[in-house]
Amino acid sequence: YPLFQLGGPQLRLFRPDFFMALVRPGVPQPEDTAQFRVSMEMTKLDIKNYLEKIYNVPVVAVRTRIQHGAHNRRNHKNQRIKKPDYKVAYVQLGQGQTFQFPNLFPEKEQTPEARSFDDFKKKYIEKEQQRQRGDPRRGGVPDWFGL
Amino acid sequence: MAARRGWRLARQGRCWLSQAEFSAAPAPPDSLYPPIVASATAKSKAAKRRRLEHFHQRVHEAGSIEEKLRLYGLLQRPKYMIYPQTFAINADRWYQSFTKTVFVPGLPPRAASEPAGAPEPGGAAAGGATGLAVPKPAGAPEPGGTAEAPQPAAEAAPEVDLGELRSLACDVLLQESFYQNKKRPFLYRDQDHTPGPFLTQLISLLAASLCRSNPLLAASSLDLNPEVNYYWHNGEEVVVHGHRKGRVDPVRFQIDDHPRLQIRVPKQLPEVVPLEADLGNVPVIDHKPSKLPLFKKQYENKVFIGSKVADPCCYGHTQFHLFPDKLKRQRFLNINLEDQIEVTYRANGIASLFAWTAAQAMYQGFWSEADVTRPFVSQAVVTDGKYFAFFCYQLNTLALTVETIQNNPRKNICWGTESKPLYDVVEDGDVKGFNDEILLQLVEFLLNRPKEL
């Protein structure tokens, strides 16, 4: 971007071509904080304006950091593979709003037929394994061994 | 050779652990053998507990207060730096949870009964410090806990002439902002340009003129730009990175505060409520302090009230804080954060006063294992030049570490007001909209003294 000097024209972007991705925080964050992965070129003011103007989200404070992608994986040619770096933004919401990242893969409620089908499957698998193992009275010796 | 070198390295890393002191365990007189206790050097929880107990005993038996403070802050580890003047969102709730403080809006009743007790003739006003026991002159019992008395301030005792003090304050304000020819303030240095000198002058003159009414002020010490530090532990966390990863450590905090002015006195202010009083709940915040955001650094663990231990003025009376340019009111209004303005005042009051009162308590020999036996009371005025907020803090407990906080029902209490303007505007050599209540509150704060005086 052109460098901003005091008194100069403010840059206005009408169709920004960078993105923000809302992610689940790795460590628990306070209730009013949302965690985003943003483009590396975005600044705190950019993030604040992006959320306020495009999504009407009241933003009180933004803190950013750059996460270094690991560079110690190796491929089949023993060359080092780098995971890409990315910028993380912690956005504190205003007007007392809170945000909790939703559980995207909840445990599905099992219907009675499904539960009984699961039981049936378990019993069948047990029977097959028992047949493989053979008679316990023979102590692990296969049944073709003998006189 | 290798064994000797290893022993030397172990001594350097843990020089506070001395083998000789551990081996001298006293045996009860009726047994032939020394008592069976856990090892002191093993890598076990019992050994760690024994080392900790030995350390506590060393601090208890320290010869002087300086030695006690030196041992208390001996081990340096990364700790959270708490800044009383911060723009972090909802910082006052976080600070309350770190210091186990209950915040009570409004000032305690003793401040309200001062003008009511003042119309009594002669020296009866001298006994009006603790409001809960002051008999009203008209005989009507005070309902307690209400705002300032409705009697007009002009009826104050002949010792305190409010009109004279008001003209004094207006003179100082005009001198600093109107009469004196000052150049334009440097960028982001507005507070040092006018409000700073105004506050210094005003408080110095007020304290000097109120010496007649309050003999405690005559024996007090007024510090300019002093330093107040306090170091404490609260709660536990698991170390995340580094060679100590996985160990359970106490969460360490350090406050390094620089109030603008500070009045230290040789006698302690009286308690406002009893030591075991319960006036509310302490906000509990489950998250790590780094989410506030707070940052860690490792440096000297300092405990300091503004003067060294040998100074006779070892108790605190009043602190005066001036906000820097970063916390100007206009900045918050520009980004639509009006509610955070009061939060900054409260956070400053709570953190600064906790650090000051706790450091005073440490100067008297109390610490987290030896809890305070009497409450420590101090006052503070937080201002940004025009708006004033008043705070009063009573320290009831220093025991905030994991072991000592469990069976400790005591809480620290902070009373505080909202920020109100002292004047509306200064133009053409005239102060418009001067607020007498703020001046009265300032005068009452300065006149606060123990019952005996």
UniProtKB/TrEMBL annotation, chain A:
One of its GO terms (molecular function) is structural constituent of ribosome. It is found in: Mitochondrion. InterPro entries: Nucleotide-bd_a/b_plait_sf, Ribosomal_uL23-like, Ribosomal_uL23/eL15/eS24_sf. Residues 127-140 have a biased composition (Basic and acidic residues). Pfam families: Ribosomal_L23. Residues 127-147 are annotated as: Disordered. Keywords: Mitochondrion, Ribonucleoprotein, Ribosomal protein. SUPFAM superfamilies: Ribosomal proteins S24e, L23 and L15e. Coiled coil: none annotated. The keyword NADP does not apply. The keyword Mitochondrion applies. GO terms for cellular component: mitochondrial large ribosomal subunit. GO terms for biological process: mitochondrial translation. Belongs to the universal ribosomal protein uL23 family. This is Large ribosomal subunit protein uL23m.
From TrEMBL, chain B:
Keywords: Mitochondrion, Ribonucleoprotein, Ribosomal protein. The keyword Ribonucleoprotein applies. One of its GO terms (biological process) is translation. It holds the Pfam family PDCD9. InterPro entries: Ribosomal_mL37/mL65, Ribosomal_mL65. It comes from the Eukaryota. GO terms for molecular function: structural constituent of ribosome. Residues 111-158 are annotated as: Disordered. Residues 111-123, 131-158 have a biased composition (Low complexity). It is found in: Mitochondrion. Its main location: mitochondrion. One of its GO terms (cellular component) is mitochondrial large ribosomal subunit. This is RT30 protein. It comes from Nothocercus julius.
